[in-house]
């Protein structure tokens, strides 16, 4: 069935949460959303607390983790494989790029430093992450000497890093791209490569080959730092920065507010009717924390916080649910 439209729901928040922030990360394990990192003042990490939002009860709490607790950082990624959360990279108080890989066991609340230094991907921030049931994939971001276009995978079973073949010059180094796993293949969508770009690339891990694909339909304009998720064969993107600020990361650029979906089989984009302009719609924003999750039994996109067109950090939580042709 084709996905044709969807709706946003603004979730209430009970108790004291982490508050407004951007350049943070979120991932879900069951009905709990784990939040780490971010900034309220541009380029200044807020804290290194692991905040937890119970999606069912709409309550916030803070986990007092043990072990190798990561220091504060911005531009960090967070992803879950099973009940384990993985944190990679980011940028610290001194604006240094980082490359540590940490794991957090949600059953024991223990942090473990897995790799750092010369092991694994080089230092970076504002990179992208995705996962399957065996791997954590890291792509691109802002490195020590410029924007990166490398793809790495950490095998959580074998506990080893692997670097995949370089995609070549057709896939420019970039920050804030979409990185998604769809039916065994890794997709790189858009991003900022000195300018906002609108190219789409696929990597096949089984073949070890990259390919650039041409998309058509109601194609979204070039953008970066958008929220994205896969549902079935569809890649869904929401918002993002479509025109960067002259102040760079210190200012707010122009942000989009629409939702688009890419059919990964037909390579057709479609813009969705998602209630833009209504009270429950999150509006234009970028640099959000986002993750795939479930709300009332339906898969969708969870979006928390981000930066606004006025350069104010946001602290609200929204959930987008796509509809099928029959309206369910």
From TrEMBL:
Record's keyword terms, sorted: Iron, Kelch repeat, Repeat
Cofactor(s) named in the record: Fe(2+)
Single biological process term from Gene Ontology: nitrile biosynthetic process
Gene3D superfamilies: Kelch-type beta propeller (2.120.10.80)
Pfam families found in the cross-reference section: Kelch_KLHDC2_KLHL20_DRC7
Domain of life: Eukaryota
Molecular function per GO: enzyme regulator activity
GO cellular component labels: cytosol; nucleus
Protein name, entry field: Epithiospecifier protein
Organism of this sequence: Malus domestica (Apple)
């Amino acid at each position: 069935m084709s996905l044709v439209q969807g709706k946003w729901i603004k979730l209430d928040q009970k108790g004291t949460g982490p508050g407004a922030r951007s350049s943070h990360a979120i991932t879900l394990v069951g009905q709990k959303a784990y939040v780490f990192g971010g900034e309220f003042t541009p380029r200044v990490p807020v804290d290194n607390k692991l905040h937890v939002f119970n999606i069912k009860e709409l309550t916030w709490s803070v986990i007092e983790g043990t072990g190798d607790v990561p220091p504060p950082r911005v531009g960090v990624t967070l992803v879950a494989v099973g009940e384990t959360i993985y944190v990679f990279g980011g940028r610290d108080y001194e604006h240094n790029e980082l490359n540590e890989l940490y794991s957090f066991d949600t059953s024991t609340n223990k942090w473990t430093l897995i790799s750092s230094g010369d092991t694994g991907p080089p230092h970076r921030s504002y990179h992208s992450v995705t996962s399957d049931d065996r791997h954590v994939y890291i792509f691109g971001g802002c490195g020590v000497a410029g924007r990166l276009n490398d793809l790495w995978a950490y095998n959580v079973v074998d506990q080893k890093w692997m670097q995949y073949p370089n995609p070549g010059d057709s896939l420019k180094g970039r920050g804030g791209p979409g990185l998604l796993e769809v039916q065994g293949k890794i997709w790189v969508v858009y991003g900022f490569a000195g300018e906002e770009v609108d190219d789409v690339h696929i990597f096949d891990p089984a073949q070890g080959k990259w390919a650039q694909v041409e998309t058509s339909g109601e194609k979204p304009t070039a953008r970066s730092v958008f929220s994205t998720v896969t549902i079935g064969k569809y890649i869904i993107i929401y918002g993002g920065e479509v025109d960067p600020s002259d102040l760079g990361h210190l200012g707010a650029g122009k942000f989009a507010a629409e939702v688009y979906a890419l059919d990964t089989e037909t390579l057709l984009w479609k813009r969705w009717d998602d209630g833009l302009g209504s009270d429950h719609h999150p509006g234009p924003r970028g640099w959000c924390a986002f993750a795939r999750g479930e709300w009332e039994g339906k898969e969708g996109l969870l979006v928390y916080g981000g930066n606004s067109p006025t350069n104010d950090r946001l602290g609200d939580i929204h959930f987008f649910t796509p509809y099928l042709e029959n309206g369910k």
